[in-house]
Structures are given as structure tokens and as C-alpha cells.
Amino acid sequence: MSKAYSLLNIGKIVAGAGCIEQIKDIVADYQAKNVVIITDQGVWNSGLVEKPKTLLEGAGVNVHIINDTPPEPTVDQVNDIFQAANEFACEMIIGIGGGSSIDTAKIVSLLLTNHVNLRDLVKGKVQIIHRGVPTLMIPTTAGTGAEATPNAIVLVPEEELKVGIVSDKMVPDCVILDPTMTINLPKHITANTGMDALCHAIECYISKKANPFSDTFALKAITLISRSIRIAYNEGQNLAAREDMLLGAMFGGISIATSSTTAVHALAYPLGGKYRIPHGLSNAILLAHVMKFNLDATEEKFKDIAIAMGINVVGISTREAAEKMIDNLYSLISDLDIHANLRDKGITEDDLDLMVESASKVTRLLDNNPKVMTKDDIREIYKKLL
Ligand SMILES: [Fe+2]
């Protein structure tokens, strides 16, 4: 008998240019009169919150804005945001932004109904019993897929550790994917976050935890992202490309929730943790090298990915199709002006021991890689980035 696998459902997903207009209908469905919007300074300053706020206020909803979610928030910072939401007698939480705002919105929603201490929750000392207050997520980047996952990351500073809280009860109730919310995303963020989403899809497809649910969403994500990432990068205002990227990122998130990422994300951990290289960029520079390493173990799946990417594989062997797929990943990085050199980030051979040690501890992901990766293998891959 095969292992069991599951698919978590978001209650309602609305997609398409201009669909932000539906925010008032969604909030009305939940009969919420007091809502809290959780966002960050960048999104707030860009004016993106103005429209949803005006639409809700026009419908008679009281809107309380929390606009200072920091990147990678700590336990205490998330707690402060929870306290602010709690004082407002909040009935619905709306997360607008990238992964940090959306993850914070998920945690705050849970804390509002479960009355547990966040530090205890992070340490696994208490359990989540109830679903949180209803949540609506509106991503303004197309990368993390956080709007589709039951996970939220929070930083525990005293332990220099990022901890993932996982609860099925944290899967968002509603998601709005409106490409007009992403058209002004800067080029390098479009590239980095888009590559993160592509990594999610490819890794979930080749993961040992892959299953028919993740296969379906991952392959579609690969198609959408492959056909549109260059266009979204070069013509930021292209709504069709931005829509593909939002859908692709969310399908990547759905894939993570039912399968898992693998060695790319494992090796990206030390780059983000110690050297502060953005998450998407870390994954982007690792992707092709890790796939080259995996080639022998997963040729057939690489051929599927090649086809999903629109690569012509007619009349060539499975091996050749798989190699073409990897070549395509290298050219994609170059087309997005992503430079794969860790020396520029101040990393040298002297740092390798620590990086290898740290990556090899991410067994939660490494164990799902289709090919066993030893410490020597990890070292060889990092060396290629120097
Ligand atoms: Fe990621």
C-alpha cells in the first residue's frame, strides 16, 4: 500500500485582473464588521492597501491597519501585532504582502481564538484546537505561495532559529490573486520570488513525497511560470504574465502543502540564515546545480518538467530531454540577470565547512531529495557558486 497523502483546501480563491473589487463581498460573506489588515511598510508606502481599505470602508466595515510587519518577524514582534489585533475586537484578518505579512496574519488569526502563548506554541508545548478567525490573503509578490500553505515561519532570536509552525487550521479561508497588485514589483524581486516559486514546483515534483495532487499543481505551476517569468521581469505591467506568476506561485504553495521541497531549499538555508542572501535568490542560484546533481536519479521526471516548460523533446532520448531541461534552467537564470557568485556576497572557501554542516542538518528536506546527498556532494555544489 502506498503512503497516505492529503490535499488541503482554501475555501475560496478569486483570481484575475481587478478582482480586488470582490473584497467587500468576501468580507460580507463572513459578516465581519471589524477587520484588521496586516501588511508591511513597503507595501503600505506603495499605496497598494488604499484600494482594499477604501472598498471595505465604503461597505461600512471598520478597518484597522497594522502596517509594520517586519521581514522575518520574531516571536515578540508577532505577539505585538496579535495584541493590536486583539484590542480591535477583530473578526477577520486580511494579510496583504509577501510571505512575512501572510505568515503573520495566519499566526495572529490562530492566537485570536486559541488563547495560547506564542512562545509555547513555537516550542511545541501547546496544541492548536480551534481554527483561527477567518483569513483573507492578498499576495503582492508571486513567490512564497504562503497563501496556500498551513505553515508560518517565525524567528526565535535567542536561539538564532527560524521555526515553522504547522497546523492544518492555518490554511487561509480566502485568497485574492489580482495581478494589478503585483505590476509595480521591482525587477529583481520579480526574478527572485518567481524563481523561488519555480523551485517549489520543481522540487515538489521530484520529491520523494510527490503524489498525484502535487504532480498536478506542480506541473501546471512550471508551465505558467516558465512561459511568463521572463515577460513579467521585462514588462512588469503585463497583466497576463503577472497573473500567470501569481497562479504559478500559489500552485507551488499548494504543492508544498501536499509534497515538500528538497535539496535546493535545504542548501539555501545557510545562505539566508548566516549570510542574509534573500530566500528567492539563494534558491535561484542553487536550482540548476542541484538538478544537475539529481539528473541520474530522476531523468523521467525531468523529461516531464521539460515538456511542462514547453521544451521540444520530440525525437530525443529521455536523458537528452532531461539535460535540455537543466540547460534551460541555466539560461533562465542568465536571462533574469541573476548572478551566481557567492564571493560577491563575501563568502569564501573558509566559510564552506560551516555551510556544509548547517545544510546537512536540514534532513527534513534533504531526506526527500530523489538522490542521497552527502556532505561532500553539498560541498561540491557550494564550490560551484564561489
Ligand atoms: Fe521557498
Structural description of this entry:
Helices cover 51% and strands 11% of the residues. The chain is an alpha/beta fold. The chain folds into two domains: 12-181, 3-Layer(aba) Sandwich (Rossmann fold); 187-385, Dehydroquinate synthase-like, alpha domain (Up-down Bundle), CATH 1.20.1090. It has a six-stranded parallel sheet, sandwiched between helices. A hairpin with a 4-residue loop joins strand 6 (151-156) and strand 7 (161-166). The longest helix is centred in the middle third of the chain and has 23 residues, at 212-234. It is globular. Bound molecules: fe (ii) ion. Fe (ii) ion (FE2) binds at residues 196, 200, 265, 279, 283.
State the main characteristics:
386 residues; Rossmann fold; Dehydroquinate synthase-like, alpha domain; 2 domains; 6-stranded parallel β-sheet; two-stranded antiparallel ribbon; 16 helices; binds fe (ii) ion
Rounded to an integer in angstroms, the radius of gyration calculated over CA atoms is: 20 Å
* CATH-derived architecture of the largest domain: Up-down Bundle
CATH H-level homologous superfamily name of the largest domain:
Dehydroquinate synthase-like - alpha domain
Taken from the alpha-carbon principal axes, the silhouette is: globular
CATH class of the largest domain: Mainly Alpha
Structural class per helix/strand content? alpha/beta
- The helix tally amounts to 16
Task: Domain count, please report it.
Answer: 2
- The first-to-last residue Cα distance is 45 Å
Q: Kindly estimate the percentage of residues that lie in beta strands according to DSSP.
A: 5-15%
Outline the biggest β-sheet: 6 strands, parallel
Q: In total, how many beta strands?
A: 8
Overall residue-averaged pLDDT value: 95
Strand order of the largest sheet: 1-8-5-4-2-3
Present as ligands are: fe (ii) ion
- State the share of residues found in helices, binned by percent: 40-55%
H-E order: EHEHHEHEHHEEEEHHHHHHHHHH
Which fold name fills CATH's third level, the topology of the largest domain?
Answer: Dehydroquinate synthase-like, alpha domain
Poorly predicted segments: none
